[in-house]
Specification:
Elements lengths: L19 H12 L2 E2 L11 H13 L12 H15 L9 E4 L1 H13 L5 E6 L3 H9 L3 E6 L1 E3 L2 E3 L2 H7 L4 E7 L11 H14 L2 E5 L24 E6 L1 H4 L7 E4 L2 H11 L8 H10 L4 H24 L3 E3 L6 E5 L8 H12 L1 E2 L1 E2 L7 H4 L2 E5 L4 H16 L1
Helix pairs in contact: 1-12, 2-10, 3-10, 4-5, 4-9, 11-14
Length: about 400
C-alpha cells in the first residue's frame, strides 16, 4: 500500500483525537456557559512575579536560547525549594532539568526511560497526556484503578502489587491526584517505595499540585528509603503561581536519570520560556505567606463549590488536594458522564468534564464528572446558583 493509502496519523496515536478539554471549552464558548471544565485560573498570579518576567524581557535575559538544562538561577531556586519544603538536597548542575511545563517533563521522561514493550503502571483515572506519552514511547499502559471509598478515592495496594510483572519498567505516580483530588498517605507512599525497591522499578512522580494540599503537607516519594536513585520527580510553576500559559516545569532526579531525560527533552523543545524562567526563580522564593494564602484561598473555593454541588444533588468527593472536585451523577438519576456533560451547558449553563476520558476502563469512570474550582469566587457563586436547577429538575 502506498504512503497515501494509510491514515495520516500513526497508529500509536490513532486512539487520541481532540482532547475533551478542547471540546468542552468550545462548548462553553458556543453556549456562553461557565467553564468549570478546564483547569486554569481566571486571574493571573502575583504581580511581582509578572513584573519579574517583564524585567527579564527588558533586560534581555532569556530572549535568546537559555542553557539546555535551564537558566542557572532557576535551577538553583528549584534546589532551594526542595530543601526548604522537604529537606531534600539536590545538585543544581547535575540533578535539575527545566522543561516546557510538567507536560513535556512527563513526555521526555517516558520517551527516555521506556523501551517498546515495557509496561508502565499508572493510577487510573489519569491525566490524559499520560496515556499518549506511554503510547509515543511504545510502552504498554497498565492501569491500577483508584476506587471510591466513602467520600474519597483509594489506592488498593494489593492491586498495585499484582499489576507488577517481569515486563514492568516504571510506575507513573500522580499525587496530589488529578482528577480525583486524592493525596496518597504516608503509609501508601511507603508501600509504593517498598514495592519499587523490591521489584527494582523506576518511578516518575507528577507533583504539580504539591502546594495545593488541604490536609497534611505533601510528601515527595523520593524522600523514602531507596528512592533517591530510582525516582524522577516532576513539578511546575503553572499551578502554584497561576501562570499556566508560561509552561515552566522541572525534573529533579539522580544525575544519570536527569541525563537520560535531557537526552529526550533536547530533541522535543531544546529550550523554552527563557524570560519566564527568571521570573519563576523569583516566584519560588516568595515567603511562606504566599503559599499559605493560595492554599487557603483554594480551600475556601473548594468548600463553596463542594457545598453547592451537594445541594444540587451530586455525590461529592471532597478533594484533599488539587483544584478539582470529582462528583458522582447517579444520585441525579444519571449514569453517562459524557451525555451529562454535553447536555449540562444547555440545561444550566455550566461546563464540566466527564472523568471517563481519564480511564482505560471507561465503564469504571462513567458516572463521575469533574469540576474545577480555580476560578473567581463570584464565578463559582454564579455556577452554584445555576446548578441548583438540577436538584429542582
Amino acid at each position: 500500500m502506498g504512503a497515501m493509502g494509510r491514515p495520516p496519523l500513526n497508529r500509536r496515536l490513532a486512539a487520541f483525537g481532540t482532547t475533551i478539554f478542547a471540546e468542552m471549552s468550545a462548548l462553553a464558548v458556543r453556549t456562553g456557559a461557565i467553564n468549570l471544565g478546564q483547569g486554569f485560573p481566571d486571574t493571573d498570579g502575583p504581580e511581582e512575579v509578572r513584573e519579574a518576567a517583564v524585567r527579564a524581557l527588558r533586560d534581555g535575559r532569556g530572549n535568546q536560547y537559555p542553557p539546555g538544562p535551564g537558566v542557572p538561577e532557576l535551577r538553583t531556586a528549584v534546589t532551594e525549594h526542595q530543601r526548604r519544603w522537604y529537606g531534600l538536597d539536590v545538585d543544581p548542575d547535575t540533578e535539575v532539568l527545566i522543561t516546557a511545563g510538567a507536560t513535556e517533563a512527563i513526555a521526555a521522561s517516558l520517551l527516555a526511560l521506556v523501551e517498546p514493550g515495557d509496561e508502565v503502571i499508572a493510577l487510573e483515572p489519569y491525566y490524559d497526556s499520560y496515556a499518549a506519552c506511554v503510547a509515543m514511547a511504545g510502552g504498554v499502559r497498565v492501569p491500577v484503578t483508584l476506587r471510591p471509598d466513602g467520600d474519597t478515592f483509594r489506592l488498593d495496594l494489593d492491586e498495585l502489587r499484582a499489576a507488577v510483572t517481569d515486563r514492568t519498567r516504571l510506575i507513573l505516580l500522580n499525587t496530589p491526584h488529578n482528577p480525583t483530588g486524592t493525596v496518597l498517605t504516608h503509609d501508601e507512599l511507603a508501600a509504593v517505595a517498598e514495592l519499587a525497591v523490591e521489584r527494582d522499578l523506576l518511578v516518575v512522580t507528577d507533583e504539580v499540585y504539591e502546594h495545593l494540599v488541604f490536609g497534611t503537607a505533601h510528601t515527595p516519594l523520593v524522600s523514602f528509603p531507596g528512592m533517591r536513585e530510582r525516582t524522577v520527580t516532576i513539578s511546575s510553576a503553572g499551578k502554584t503561581f497561576s501562570f499556566t500559559g508560561w509552561k515552566v516545569g522541572w525534573v529533579t532526579a539522580a544525575p544519570e536519570l536527569v541525563t537520560a531525560v535531557r537526552s529526550a527533552k533536547q530533541y522535543l523543545t531544546y529550550v523554552s520560556a527563557g524570560p519566564f524562567q527568571y521570573a519563576v526563580a523569583e516566584a519560588l522564593r516568595l515567603p511562606d505567606a504566599y503559599f499559605d494564602g493560595i492554599r487557603e484561598d483554594l480551600r475556601a473555593k473548594r468548600d463553596l463549590l463542594a457545598d453547592g454541588l451537594t445541594d444540587a444533588g451530586f455525590q461529592v468527593f471532597r478533594p484533599s488536594g488539587t483544584y478539582f472536585i470529582t462528583t458522582d451523577i447517579r444520585p441525579l438519576g444519571e449514569t453517562d458522564g459524557f451525555a451529562f456533560c454535553r447536555s449540562l451547558p444547555e440545561r444550566c449553563g455550566v461546563v464540566a468534564v466527564p472523568n471517563a476520558v481519564f480511564y482505560d476502563h471507561q465503564d469504571q469512570g462513567s458516572p463521575f464528572v469533574r469540576f474545577a474550582f480555580c476560578k473567581r469566587e463570584s464565578v463559582l457563586t454564579e455556577a452554584v446558583g445555576r446548578l441548583k436547577g438540577l436538584a429542582a429538575g
